[in-house]
Amino acid sequence: MAFVARKWSVALALTMLAGVMAACGSNSNDGNGASSASPSSPASSSASSSASPAASSSEPVKLTIAWWGSQERHDATQKALEQYTALHPNVTFETQFSGWDGYFDKLAVQYSAGSAPDIIQMDAAYVNDYVGRGLLADIGSINTADVDPSLIASGKVNGTLYAMPLGVAALGMVYDKTVVDKLGLTPPSFEWTWDDYFAFGEAAKAKLGKDKYVFEDQSADLVDYTAYQYSMGKGYIYNDQGKLAIDKDTWLQYMTKMSELRDKGILTPADLTATDKELDPQLDNVVNGNAIARHLFSNQVGAIDALKPDTYGYAALPKGTEAGGWLKPGMFWSVNAQSKHTEEAKAFIDWFINDVDAGKTLGLTRGTPVSSKVVEALTPNFSEADKTSIDFINKVAPDAQQFINDPQGWGNFKNEYKTIVEEIQFGQTTPEQAYDKLMKKAAEFEAAAAQ
Amino acid sequence: MLRNPFKSLRIDFVFFFGFAFIVALLVGLFVYTSYTSSSREVASSTSFYQQKLLNELNKKLNTNLVSIEQSSITASKNFDIVISRMPGDDSYDRVRAQAEIRSQLNNYVFGTPILQSIHVYSNLPASYSVQEYVQFLSMDQIPKESWYPDIEKTDYAWLSEHSIKTNSGDTPVISFARKVYNNLNQYYALIVLNIKVPVFQSLIKADDTDASVALLDETGKLITQTSNSSFTQAYLDSMMAKIAAQPSGSDRRGDEFLVWSKSMDSKWTLLERSSWKDMTRSSMETTRLFLLLGLLAILMIILLGMFLARQFIKPIGLLLKAMNQFPNHKGVVLPDDYKNEFGRLFQGYHKLTGRIEELYANLEVQYERRRHAELKSLQMMINPHFLYNSLDQVNWVAIEEGQSRISRMLSLLGQMFRLALTNTDSLVPVSEEVAHIECYLQFQQIRWEDDLVYQVDLTEEARRLLMPKIILQPFIENAFVHGFHGKRSARLVVTIRPAGNQLEIIIADDGRRIGLSHMAPKDTKSGGGYGLRNVQERIDALFGPAYGFELSDSNMGGTQAVIRLPIILESPHT
Which residue ranges does the record assign to the Histidine kinase/HSP90-like ATPase domain (chain B) (predicted)? Predict the structure, then answer.
């Protein structure tokens, strides 16, 4: 089980996206293609709900469901749950929702206490870990006729479906368009390079002054370095054997550059970085105006737009020799293997991904819906934010990097990574020392994963 | 004065209402006692079980809350350890310390399902994100919190319901706050463990009731309650005395039934209020059923009473009707199929009316007879008058014809009639009676001329006495008719004198002796026989058997009659 890289190529992703988002037009030059392409044929919701597995007895069932996300996602999901209860009065939900931070810590504690939720929002980084420990139920019986098989494959481990992908998202960047326009800067684009990135930083900092910063310092997030290594043509940070494959020079180069930007006040200073909470109305450094730009997934467009409507512009991660961003299935629904209500849970997930009404309620809060039918039905009613989000994906998609689930045993590595990089941020250590520490930590993980 | 209803009111009325009253009284009494006893039963058993339940809840609650309190101790110790290890002069230390504290406290939240979040008031950088489980706030914030007075003077306290911001919006929580002290015994942080109110309430909520439960801490402060603001602090303060006096008890105020339990080994008091109406619903239903049955019974009894009254009263009514129509009751026939008291009553009534009818008939006969007699007597009175008047006319004719002897006789006869006709049946003076017999004697004198010698000896004393009239004339007539019949001469002596206490009248003649045998036959109507018997009867009727007359031979050779009468003095006014 050590090797769990998904055979999920960019090509496949593109095929999928082309199929899913024909309406939006993969040719982004054709701006109005979205509305002209597919005359909406809103699939009847009854048709899709009748496809649910016949697990619906009238016995009262209370399903516990947990997810992380932004307030926008919380609201949409709770509304969808109410909708489901209205359709199935015997099924009620107990919800547990929070931000990303601490989500998997809590889940770990709950599993050890035997009180984990029935339905769990799962992240690609943890799928292999949880399946490896036998904590997730086989959900292969769910109807996935309208979902691209290659996308489904991202939720499979050894051919068995354990995690139902819920949406496709692209990694890119968000910037405060109002500030960029006001300062008269060249806005970041989907085509920009690292040089553009550094130049933008310098130019913006010069105009912003002392207490404002250009980029939220996300160098402690493994995602950022992953994108950097990709963009430098050094490939994925894990190799085929499921081992860490960080290129030392590239990493040191990146960390040194970041320290330099930090010193110049282009990146947020360490103590400000420490208080940053992504998409928190007060604590997100881009939202609260401390910085201009940060990385963002396309499925967060709606959330950040909701916080400050019509404020933000979007860009790809900077390119080096290659593109840095990638497409990923934003998140999954998994069913707790310990649950007493796996059938009901599966019926709910079936409804969640296939029902048009559910799709309308949820919108793009978890990325572009995976059911082509749902996308078709939704397309005519896309909001501006939705369209932006779709546009975001389409622009990142053409040269997006391959997305690979974290290998088993490495789910928590990103937390250790963060701690080590934070030391650099606070000037407690040099990049070289940090690299050694990182390698030591990696060896521990590797040894543990090998057992 | 209240009159005896059995004597004054109509029988059917008394019968029916008496019946109905007694039944209603019984039913009412039954319903009342069954209601009071069953509701008392309900109250005592409810109180007992609720107290038991509350005690159980109290224990369960205490277990949970004690674990929270203990967690807070560990959390505050760990907090102090982390802070003293990383005093926080440099910012990285502070970030690391905060991260470590967050991760530790996260684990408390994750591992204790009833915890919603933990708030840390300290000098660490403030960071409040609703997406997080652990929030850092500044120490300066504490005095601004609504619960500040609760913690101000104590090291730890339960904070009653207040609101915090979460990713579900403003969420009501109940919290346990504990101050963190360092080695120098300085208070420098406050850890607040938040429990969601619904979770907390589920701890104090009995599973199967919708009664509202309130939780008070040891000072009587209302921590929370399961129903919206049904208990107020003021209300609870008024209960405190009772709760203090009795750790477990119950009380009823109108519709409210309160049960409380203050556990010995914890500081919590649970107070449960339920609706008395709801509790006693079943016994109320029973009561209502009884009441309904009672009313039904009353109705049945009313009908039965009406029926019985009718049946019993009917013969009385018939009797009354018959009595009312009595004189002409021929139309009303009393039924003859009653064999009981009513039958006897009817028979008695029949007998009574029969007797009365008989009497009426008799009376009618008697009346008829009397009328007849009166008529006869009137007729009899007409005859003497007619004779007297006729005699007078004959007298006149005799005078015209020159027949002076006949005239004289008619005149005497007229005088006798006159005497006889006046004062009929009454007593007359002896002199008048004597005048009467003298008339008769003079009448006979005219016929007998000198052959008749008579003498009337009347004492002056006797003259004034009274006697029945026409007593003497029949004796004298008898003497002439029988004694002197066929004789040429006659002598008659009448002696009237008082003898002792009697008036003695002796009429003696010298005619033939009549003898007693001659007097005996009383049946004869001829002559003196009828007259004497009449005299005897009249004397008997007037004076009784002590008086009368007797006939005997006279010393003059003939017959003598001795008549004895009582001495009756002339009344002064006569």
Answer: 471-566
Both A276 and A370 in one domain: the answer is no
Among B129, B134, B202, most A C-beta atoms within 10 A, so best to mutate, is B129
Q: Look at the block and give the residue holding tokens 């904590």.
A: A135
b/e burial code for range A216-236 (CB count within 10 A of at least 16 → b)? bbbbbbbbbbbbbbbbbebeb
The residue count of chain A comes to: 451
From B68's Cα to the closest Cα of chain A, the distance in A is: 17
Q: Do A270 and B125 touch (CB under 8 A)?
A: no
pLDDT the model gives residue B471:
85
The angle subtended at Cα B480 by Cα B475 and Cα B481, nearest 5°, is 90
Inter-chain contacts counted by CB atoms under 8 A, chains A and B: 73
ipTM exceeds 0.85, yes or no? no
User: Are A277 and B127 within 8 A, CB to CB?
Assistant: yes
- Please tell me the predicted confidence (pLDDT) of residue A45: 38
| pLDDT at position A57 | 60
The total number of structural domains that make up chain A: 2
Q: Tell me if A355 is assigned to some domain.
A: yes
In this structure, the answer to whether residues A96 and A189 fall within a common structural domain is no
Residue A425 distance to chain B (closest CA, Å): 9
The pLDDT score that the predictor gives to residue B206 is: 66
- pLDDT value at position A441? 94
User: Is A57 an interface residue toward B (CB < 8 Å)?
Assistant: no
Interface residues from chain B to A (CB-CB < 8 Å) = 90-92, 94-96, 98-99, 103, 106-107, 109-111, 113, 125, 127-133, 167-168
- A114 contacts chain B (CB < 8 A): no
In which band, very low, low, confident or very high, does the pLDDT at A120 lie, cut at 50, 70 and 90? very high
Res A1: pLDDT? 37
Using one digit for the tens of pLDDT, what is the confidence trace for A65-94?
A: 999 998 889 999 999 999 999 999 999 999
Contact list in B for residue A106 (CB cut-off 8 A) is 106, 109-110, 133
Instruction: Answer yes or no: is A287 within a domain.
Output: yes
A34, part of any domain: no
Task: Let me know if residue A161 belongs to a domain.
Answer: yes
* B103 interaction partners in chain A (CB closer than 8 Å): 105
pLDDT of residue A10 exceeding 60: no
Q: Are residues A348 and A251 in the same domain?
A: no
Residue A253, judged by CB atoms within 10 A of its CB (0-12, 13-18, 19+), counts as middle
Distance from CA of B234 to the nearest CA of A (A): 36
My answer on whether A305 and A211 are in the same domain is yes
Q: Which domain holds residue A190?
A: 170-327+412-450
Looking at the structure, tell me whether residues A120 and A138 fall in a common domain: yes
Examine the fold and report which residue of A374, A399, A424 is the final residue of a domain before the chain moves on.
Answer: A399
CB contact under 8 A, A277 and B91: no
Instruction: Quote the distance between the C-alpha of residue B568 and its chain's center.
Output: 68
> Do A416 and A346 have their domain in common?
no
Grouped pLDDT means (10 residues each) for chain B, 574 residues? 73 77 83 81 80 84 88 91 81 84 90 89 87 90 91 90 87 92 90 89 72 80 76 77 77 79 78 78 78 83 79 81 74 76 85 88 90 75 75 87 87 82 72 88 88 89 85 87 85 90 90 61 48 83 85 85 87 54
Convert the pLDDT of each residue in A320-330 to its tens digit: 999 888 888 87
Q: What is the CATH number of the domain that holds A352?
A: 3.40.190.10
> Does residue A65 sit in the same domain as residue A142?
yes
Residue A100: list chain B partners with CB under 8 A: 131
**Are residues A282 and A288 in contact, defined by beta-carbon separation less than 8 angstroms?**
yes
Q: Which residues of B303-318 are buried (b: 16+ CB within 10 A; e: fewer)?
A: eebeeebeeebebeeb
- Tell whether pTM > 0.80: no
More confidently predicted of A431 and B527: A431
A205 touches chain B (CB under 8 A): no
Of residues B284, B253, B287, B286, the one with CA closest to residue B271: B253
* Residue A294 token pair: 């940060």
User: Cβ A270–B109 below 8 Å, yes or no?
Assistant: no
For the CA atoms of B530, B535, B536, B540, what is the dihedral angle to 10 degrees?
140
Domain match, A176 and A242 both: yes
